[in-house]
């Protein structure tokens, strides 16, 4: 007896190296990121998304300075995870100033990653959160455009983040890397 599984299509998992080759050949153009072997288009950010990225950038610049804040830049991941993953977060903060890096920063050199989420909220809360936790990103923020809230992930484990807190516009928080600072969620 035949089963449906016998007829399921094979899904190609792309590697970072394959994507780089496709890009060099001109077959992969524009902005993209590789997550779990899937090539995700990073184009098409609407006006609200762009506005929120700008607000996020200003808030992070005020907290950490221009030398450590990166906007829409790929990060590198080592080991087997790195074969199939090259995320390009909306923003991240590095341990060192940008002049210390000859290549894009490694995941273990990142203090905080932030994504602005509109239509991608379920994906950002599951797939991306799990990836960032597995590679040890200490703090991951999701700026929820529709819900007008900030979802803060902390305490990474191989299974995901152990602490997830949702903050509303009237709330404030202190990033783990700047416990002396206070940020109003409404600023985002």
Layout of helices and strands, plus pairs?
Layout: H1 16-24, E1 32-35, E2 38-41, H2 47-64, E3 69-71, H3 79-84, E4 91-94, E5 110-117, H4 121-134, E6 139-144, E7 149-157, E8 160-168, E9 172-173, E10 183-184
Parallel strand pairs: 5-6
Antiparallel strand pairs: 1-2, 3-4, 4-5, 6-7, 7-8, 9-10
The helix/strand class is alpha+beta
Poorly predicted ranges: none
The CA-CA distance between the termini, in Å, is 56 Å
Overall body shape: globular
Largest sheet, strands/sense/barrel: 6 strands, mixed
Would you count the extended β strands for me? 10
Count of discrete alpha- or pi-helical segments spanning 4 or more residues: 4
* Rg, alpha carbons: 17 Å
| Percentage of residues in helical conformation | 25-40%
Amount of beta strand:
25-35%
Could you spell the SSE succession in H and E letters? HEEHEHEEHEEEEE
Averaged pLDDT: 91
**Widest sheet: strand ordering:** 3-4-5-6-7-8
